[in-house]
Design a protein that fits this description.
By secondary structure, chain A is mainly α. In chain A, 76% of the residues lie in helices and 3% in strands. Chain A is flat, with a radius of gyration of 27 Å. Chain B is an alpha/beta fold and 258 residues long. Chain B has nine helices and ten strands. Classes of the chains: A mainly alpha (284), B alpha/beta (258).
Chain lengths: 284, 258
């Protein structure tokens, strides 16, 4: 028994630092719980707004928005089927964008004027025009020159080029985060400038650039909806507007699509934050 | 004795700033030469000109029989710079270990990428050199998990793994906490005993006295005096050397090891 008493008496002699720390942890936990509960409340409120119930309070009758349950039941599967295409477009585009961003960032470091100019020209041109226009350009304008791209590839090309231009800044920051000493150490052991880039500088720059690239991917998930404008890519947005317009149930169709975009974003954001803490593990 | 490093009429300008003025210097095989001087005197620049991390503005550099005069340009020059970097190992003040590679991978990198060695041989060479600097037990750690002194010892092993003819040390202990300086100097002393040719830019006067065959004093980009350490300390000829030694005695420079 005495063996159990010892820690108990120790607990009473907790010093002030422990007490303050515990109070802080407790306050933080309480705050987080309340945030979570409020989220649930907001969700419940929104659900209630669209529940279609009629209430009578003190003689006044209120009715919330009524959704067409039959439409939702029969079209949910069709619209949800677009999620795969949405992810496919985003994944292909982010790959293209990553390559372009890295090339553009390397171009910005070049001491050869035409290469430097090419990189800045590309970034300036792309950032100076709307993404919506770029998608149409690849889909509608190129056929006039005899180049016919499917809606999917026109979309991937436009999204990839567009995001590549914006992401080149991320990669540029990544490359310049690698100190001059790293380059010198590599050169001093006899590495060529090319080996120094590919073995020493780029791996470190990528480690720096991967978490923000995850953010860009999440942004792209939603911008991929613009590709629906070509009319031939059966992703979430296209499917939602197709059935919504046909049956004049746009409200229901768009809500379904919104829910799916939101869920995908939540999933990828949580993956992203895990990736981020994994990547920063070495720096602590 | 055969000279490993020969510097002839070296001049270096940074823009309009004249940082090295007509430097002539020879370092023989197995010789340990310490370069001392105040901050900004050009001593690091001199060292960095030897393996062309800085481009000399005029004059010529010869390492292990391979000469690069300033007039040489183009492909032939690039090839010779490459060979000079192969025959010289450099240790930096800030260690500059590759943070994305383990200690072992850091040391393997040169043999693997530059000498195109197969992996097994590279591992063998890397382990042998980590053994030499007493860092073999940390071979699987990443650089950010080891102390500054340990980092510098790994950096020395990385340079040694290329089997250079001369080792260039650019203030190897200046970025270290005082209690970590000793372990690095111990490694450098053992290298000197093994007969490694070394050029060391340093503020560690005790190390210079104990290990160097010759001490060189640089002041305002000029080589003002060179002598055996005992002679230099007891009978400094040049007024700038006298002033510099006064400063060291007054302890104004980084503290020497006890």
């Amino acid at each position: 028994m005495s063996a159990f008493k010892a820690p108990a008496s120790g607990k009473q002699k907790k010093n002030q630092a422990d007490l303050i720390y515990e109070a802080q942890v407790h306050a933080k936990r309480r705050f987080n719980t309340q945030v979570a509960l409020s989220w649930v409340a907001f969700l419940a409120f929104i659900t209630f707004l669209f529940s279609g119930v009629t209430l009578t309070i003190g003689g006044n009758t209120f009715s919330t928005i009524k959704l067409d349950g039959e439409f939702i039941r029969s079209n949910l599967k069709f619209i949800a089927g677009g999620a795969g295409q949405t992810i496919l477009i985003s994944a292909l585009s982010i790959c293209l964008a990553t390559i372009l961003a890295l090339l553009a960032a390397l171009g910005r470091l070049s001491k050869f004027p035409p290469i430097y100019a090419l990189s800045t020209f590309y970034v300036s041109l792309i950032r100076g025009t709307p993404l919506y226009l770029q998608i149409f350009f690849f889909y509608l304008a190129l056929p006039q020159l005899g180049i016919i791209l499917s809606g999917l590839w026109a979309g991937v090309l436009a999204l990839g080029l567009n995001y590549g231009a914006y992401m080149s800044e991320i990669f540029r920051a990544g490359l310049s985060s690698v100190g001059k000493g790293q380059r010198e150490a590599a050169l001093a052991i006899g590495m060529t400038p090319g080996q120094t880039m590919s073995r020493i500088v780029i791996p470190q720059a990528l480690r720096f650039a991967i978490p923000p690239t995850g953010n860009e991917f999440i942004a792209m998930l939603k911008d991929s909806a613009l590709v629906s404008a070509t009319g031939f890519v059966h992703e979430l947005m296209w499917r939602a507007t197709k059935v919504g317009r046909a049956q004049f149930n746009n409200l229901e169709a768009l809500i379904i699509a919104a829910v799916f975009y939101w869920i995908m974003t939540l999933v990828f954001t949580s993956l992203q934050s895990r990736l981020e803490s994994y990547m920063s593990r070495g720096e602590r | 004795m055969k000279a490993i490093v020969k510097i002839k009429n070296l001049e270096k300008y940074f823009g309009r700033l004249h940082v090295l003025k007509n430097i002539n210097l020879e370092v023989d095989a197995k010789e340990v030469v310490c370069i001392i001087g105040r901050s900004g005197s050009g001593k690091s620049t001199l060292l960095r000109c030897i393996n062309f991390l800085e481009e000399p503005s005029d004059g010529e550099i010869e390492v292990d029989g391979l000469c690069i005069p300033c007039s040489l340009k183009g492909k032939e020059r690039r090839q010779r710079v490459f060979e000079i970097r192969l025959s010289s190992g450099m240790v930096f003040q800030e260690f500059n270990l590759f943070p994305h590679m383990t200690v072992l991978e850091n040391v393997m990198e040169g043999p693997l990428t530059v000498k195109k060695m197969d992996k097994a041989s590279a591992v063998k060479i890397a382990e042998m050199n980590l053994e030499r600097v007493g860092m073999i037990i940390k071979k699987d750690e990443y650089p950010n998990r080891i102390s500054g002194g340990q980092k510098q010892r790994v950096a020395i092993a990385r340079a040694l793994a290329m089997e250079p003819k001369v080792m260039l040390f650019d203030e190897p202990t200046s970025a270290l906490d005082p209690e970590l300086i000793g372990e690095v100097l111990t490694v450098m002393k053992s290298l000197a005993r093994e007969g490694t040719t070394m050029l060391v830019v340093t503020h560690e006067m005790e190390f210079a006295c104990e290990v160097a065959n010759r001490v060189i004093v640089i002041h305002d980009g000029e080589l003002v005096e060179q002598a055996a350490p005992a002679d230099l300390i007891n009978h400094p000829q040049n007024v700038h050397t006298q002033a510099l030694l006064e400063r060291y005695r007054a302890g104004k420079s980084p503290q020497v090891e006890a």
